[in-house]
Design a protein that fits this description.
It contains 15 helices and 24 strands. By secondary structure, it is α/β, with parallel strands linked by helices. It folds into two domains: 298 residues, Glycosidases (TIM Barrel); 126 residues, Sandwich (Chondroitinase Ac, Chain A, domain 3), CATH 2.60.220. The strands form five sheets. A nine-stranded parallel beta sheet has the order 12-14-4-5-6-9-10-11-13. Strands 15-18-19-24-21-22 form a six-stranded antiparallel beta sheet. α6 packs parallel to α11, α13 packs parallel to α14 and α14 packs parallel to α15.
């Protein structure tokens, strides 16, 4: 709060006047979708993640804020590391956290904080020196080479988990005190891309003992309860071993790398779930974990035990304090990864994605097709301001009220012509209409991208570029249908501001909405993203 506002607030409290204070950011259902709610309103994170060490120095970070102001972001993902927060055991330093809060507020950005505690990208590089040096209290995971101790804290250490949880809880208590009314921080990531590699299992004594123990009954109960919606890989491992309801990890999940991965997923999730629960007890912000994806490699080529899609059900059972399991997408099949994570009630959030020329199309797809909570390229301060994502974020900001209203109720679809796809378009049902999307013939710098939103029974907003769409009814009624009118325009403060009326060559004689409306009109910049408002009608 500003000083004057703070004084007024205190005066009202002392006078016995009830003062409404918005609840902390939270998640809520909207139809089949999940939305992030900030200060009572759904919020789409048009985000970017800073490089790992950017937020470790406020002086280094200062000029970065100016760059971010040119990118149309509303949210910044920034690191808080355990080693800088608790440089000495029991002594906490919140200087960097408070600096982040101050600068984010000044630049009108929300924050997602990334807790780099016990693990970052599978190793323990951000743990404090007093943790790293004391291998007796904070034991390391062990590998095959002479049982070498790795630079990785073992997830089987009670002492390590307790120390991490205490530090994370201290961070969350401080956020409640420093930001509990302003809600600059809207979400928190717990650890980063956890897991073990190249081994498929920690070979320390505690891990060996646990591997020979019975699979926890609570996990078996979860498998039974959710058998129908389990990931196919997990279901097959369990079924092939006889769908046993008791037994050791190899007995229940068939041994080999598969049993190792389920086992490690459970124990990483239990550890991180405890850290998250300690933080939520202090300040209950939405919390998520991110995944280094498996790609086409065997276990051990990616960190084993992390929340890859096939063990997401294990994580959900082991760590109920976590709200979201989020993929860091650097694989070519962006659509496939999104579909793998937008399942079984898991909200899609993409905290990291490859920073390239396809960012804009990926963002449209995530929000339009899967109702994503947010989208965030990694290393955002390195993004060229000419990247089409900047313009895309501007369009998505205009459309946010329509997007959040349409999420989860079958009134929105995404468009993205992913490289390697041979389809010429797609057909998708939206409300009582079928949208027939056709991609522009692929040429250099022409990737079909956008979204289609139904805003009234016979009215749509179509945004993006390099595709066309026409509609056919799915319900009984008059025999024919066509486009009544198309306007090009923009939304300002939620209100439609019409520009050109496009009922001529730009619509193929009132047959289709086209983006761009007419390639030959170079004055109108065919490469520009735009928004069309399309009205349909039916007749005999």
């Amino acid at each position: 709060m500003k000083p004057k506002t703070q004084l007024l607030f205190l005066a009202l409290v002392f006078a016995g006047v009830a003062v409404a204070v918005e609840a902390p950011p939270s998640l809520r259902k909207h139809g089949a979708a999940t939305q992030l709610v900030v200060d009572g309103k759904p919020f789409l994170m048009l985000a970017g993640e800073l490089h790992n060490s950017t937020a470790s120095s406020l002086d280094y970070l200062k000029p970065v804020w100016g760059k971010l102001a040119t990118l149309n972001l509303n949210t910044v993902l920034a690191t808080v590391s355990w080693e800088l927060l608790e440089p000495e055991e029991g002594r906490f330093d919140f200087t960097l956290v408070d600096g982040l809060l101050s600068e984010a507020r000044h630049h009108h950005h929300k924050l997602v904080l990334l807790w780099f505690g016990s693990w970052k990208n599978g190793v323990s590089s951000y743990a404090p020196a007093w943790v790293k040096k004391d291998t007796q209290r904070f034991p390391r995971a062990e590998g095959r080479s002479n049982h070498n101790k790795k630079d990785v804290l073992s997830p089987f250490s009670e002492t390590s988990c307790a120390a991490d949880a205490r530090a994370f809880a201290a961070l969350m208590r401080h956020l409640r005190q420093a930001d509990g009314t302003q809600h600059t921080v809207i979400m928190v990531q717990v650890e980063n891309e956890v897991g073990l590699k190249p081994e498929t299992r920690d070979l320390c004594a505690a891990s060996d003992a646990a591997f020979r123990e019975a699979v926890p009954g609570e996990l078996i109960a979860c498998l039974k309860q959710h058998r129908a919606e389990l990931h196919l890989w997990l279901k097959e491992k369990w079924t092939a071993a006889g769908s046993k309801e008791s037994g050791t990890w190899p007995e229940v999940f068939g041994g080999g790398a598969g049993a190792d991965e389920v086992f490690m997923a459970w124990h990483y999730a239990r550890y991180i779930g405890r850290v998250a629960a300690a933080g939520k007890a202090a300040y209950p912000l939405p919390m998520y974990v991110n995944a280094w994806l498996e790609g086409d490699g065997a276990p051990g080529t990616y960190p084993v035990g992390g929340p890859v899609a096939k063990v997401m059900d294990i994580w959900r059972a082991a760590a109920p304090a976590l709200d979201v399991f989020a993929p860091d997408i650097y694989l070519a099949d962006f659509k496939g990864v999104c579909a793998a994570y937008a399942r079984a009630g898991n909200p899609l959030f993409i905290p990291e994605v490859h920073r390239d020329e396809l960012l804009a199309g990926r963002a449209f797809w995530a929000f339009g097709e899967h109702g994503a909570l947010g989208f965030s390229p990694f290393g955002i301060e390195s993004l060229d301001a000419t990247n089409l994502l900047v313009e895309t974020y501007g369009v998505l900001a205009q459309l946010t009220p329509l997007i959040v209203e349409a999420q989860g109720i079958g009134r929105m679809a995404g468009v993205f012509q992913q490289p390697g796809e041979t389809d010429e378009g797609r057909e998708v049902d939206i409300g009582d209409w079928r949208a027939h999307v056709r991609y522009e013939k692929r040429q250099r710098d022409r990737t079909a991208m956008g979204l289609i939103i139904q805003i009234a029974p016979d009215e749509f907003v179509v945004a993006g570029n390099w595709f066309s769409v026409n509609f056919s009814p799915r319900t009984p009624g008059p025999r024919y249908n066509s486009i009544l009118q198309i306007e090009e325009g923009r939304f300002a403060d939620g209100r439609w501001q019409p520009g050109r009326r496009l009922n001529g060559d730009e619509t193929g004689a009132n047959w289709q909405a086209k983006l761009p409306p007419f390639n030959g009109n170079t004055f109108s910049r065919p490469d520009k993203l735009r928004i069309l408002r399309v009205k349909l009608y039916r007749y005999d």
